[in-house]
Amino acid sequence: xxxxxxxxxxxxxxxxxxxxxxxxxxxxxxxxxxxxxxxxxxxxxxxxxxxxxxxxxxxxxxxxxxxxxxxxxxxxxxxxxxxxxxxxxxxxxxxxx
Length: 97
Ligand code: FES
What we know:
- The protein has 1 helix and 7 strands, in the order ββαβββββ.
- By secondary structure, it is mainly beta.
- It starts with 11 loop residues before the first strand and ends in a 7-residue tail after the last strand.
């Protein structure tokens, strides 16, 4: 859906649903999610419809995903880090690990 306007000079690797993905240092997770072939971040708890990052400024909560085992992270407010594990959030949050 989206692509970068330039090729990054250096990249780091993060993991999205078990797939290694290249990201640029300082980039936010939501931007990386939007560049994927399947550009969504979560499924709604009731209807399981796909949601994707929208406002990119912490207002809409459409970008929620699980980051390093922590659910309900607003991915538009968090920068990537090498080795970070991102999982698209499916339905309701688990209360126990
Ligand atoms: S994209 Fe709207 S809160 Fe993250």
